[in-house]
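User: Before I run my own analysis I want an independent prediction to cross-check against. Here's the chain; please return only the structure tokens and, at the end, one sentence I can use as a sanity check.
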Amino acid sequence: MRRTFSYYCIGGWVNTSVEMVLIGLDIGNTSLKALAFTPSGRIVARVSQPTQRIKTAEMHIHGMHLTGLLEPRLLLEVVQDLLSQIQRRVGQAETPYEIRAVAVTGMGGPMVALDQNDNPVYPVIGLWPIDIHETALDGSDQTFYEVTGYHLHNSPFVTMVWLAQHDPARFARVKGILPVVSYVTFALSGMKASDPSMASGTGIWDQGCGKWARQIIQSTPVRFDCFPVVSPAGTALGPPSQQFQESTGLPSDTLVAVGGHDYLCAAGALGITKPGMVLNMLGTYEIFATPHHSASVVQPSELDLIDDTHVYPHTRSLMFQVIGGGHLEWLRRLLTGGLDESASMAQWIRILDGAARMRDDDMVDLVFAPFLFGRFFPERCIHPHGALLGLSDRHGPEHVSRAMIDALSYVSMEALKTLTAVSGEEVTKIVVSGGGTQNRLWVQRKADFLQTALQVPDVMDTSALGAAILAGLAVGVYSDWDQAAAALDINWAEITPKDPIDPRYLDQFIRWDDVSPNACAHTVDLSRRIAHEILVSNEATRIPPTGA
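Assistant: Structure tokens:
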């Protein structure tokens, strides 16, 4: 979309055409990014910084010492720097561009508690390792889930309740509570606003009536009036604050819009908005999500399933989350220790090339248990119990890497089959997105285990693209999500599965629960039941060999 301007020079009036760009700002757990997109989704400029640089805050409270927490003030400094850089790069482009609007996306759940002067009272508050039994919500998990779509241990709001009870003097200063994305949006626009997807991510949103869960909040020491106004994602808020205009160079007629939860912004941008469609995001965390239209929270009984509100109107999303790329990043650093980043990546690529040449027969009896950070599926078990089983002197880095990738692919198979069983919808499409798609072996093995073709877009920063779409909705570039997704010029690759995984190879993954001293017994039992159902199903549908 272009706008035409006229200016006078010697010889007469001249018309010039300026193309509009939309800014998507992504507050991620791994990196902080700002991207400028044209309305067709083409990237004009991209800047980023590691989130680790601002994880400098500490908390010592109630016998618990936490380090590496995100510092809210530093976050705003980085956001200011990113927007300043993106403004300069857009201005330096050969083609004339005009920044028209900006919206923020990012991690769902973490919140910022503000005092009466809008200064942070604590570091960014997320899923801290608190004892749920020490909160006013203890014993209410089933009721809590039926209202919010979150179990107590998945809800950052429960951390907020814990703070209110165990740090009452300091918590008394809290006058406002904003999701971290809304906190950045507030700094940009001066408006305290959230959208339903970010409100849902805090774990205290009433999914049935589409409002903050007043009755639950009022049963705790947290004040209901601390929470912000909630408006649809893509609602226009106004121009950037004077401070951000001066510090970043953003034009005064730039519009700030209400943003949304990162994985749901990605789903909207990629058209994952109908039941039966599945989004699989590969990052530090791996997400499986599918839209649904149920009028009430879907009941997963024992499963650690999250039921979120989508950015797409009148839609919700069922989601499983596991640690995916976090395991691979750990292994890369372990196997390439001592090398600088460039050399480490080069060596890692060589290892993965070797791993890709392995056959299932080469991997017999070598199993990696991908639980270095605890478990998130089929239910949460906070105890780390990763293991490498069957290791011998014939194995090298390629075997270990293949074992890890196959283990992650097997967990993906369990998660997808369970997700579709709960939703009751036949899978019509699986889209794989995120930085992990650069690992071609991981994507291919995922297709092999799932025995389903995977659709991979050529855009990795899909959450930021979704935020840019929200910015475009605010200024009327797009009429709705469907029209926006249709306007994007995205190239797609299809990754087709190779031969089915031999059931004997699948069977060995159940072994990782045989030597897990820290594993939660109920989690192990539930995992084995899911594995058994998969093995029986695969054996029943397996085509017998010729002559059988």
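Sanity check: Residues 397-423 form the longest helix (27 residues).
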